[in-house]
Each structure stands twice: as C-alpha cells, then as structure tokens.
Amino acid sequence: DSKDVMKAVKRRIGNRNSKIQLLALM
User: Fold this and answer.
1) What pTM was computed for the model?
2) Is the separation of the CB atoms in 9 and 21 below 8 Å?
3) Is the Cβ–Cβ distance between 18 and 9 less than 8 Å?
4) Which of 10, 7, 2 is nearest to 26 (CA)?
5) For the purposes of burial, counting CB atoms within 10 Å of the CB of 14, is it exposed (0-12), middle (13-18) or buried (19 or more)?
6) Cα-Cα-Cα-Cα dihedral sign, residues 10, 13, 16, 18
7) How many CB atoms lie within 10 A of CB 6?
8) CA–CA gap between residue 3 and residue 26 (Å, rounded)
9) What is the pLDDT of residues 1-26, one digit of tens each?
C-alpha cells in the first residue's frame, strides 16, 4: 500500500526531506 511506502520513506529520509521525496513519487 502507498501508506507503507510513505512510512518507509519517512523512516529512511526523515521529516525534512519527506516533502522532496513526495514530489519525486508524484
């Protein structure tokens, strides 16, 4: 699920870069 991906991304990258990663996924 996308939710699991979101959690994994947040854990690996952190909160400050989560927005950038979201843009990359979008």
Assistant:
1) 0.33
2) yes
3) yes
4) 2
5) exposed
6) negative
7) 14
8) 14
9) 788 887 887 777 666 666 777 777 76
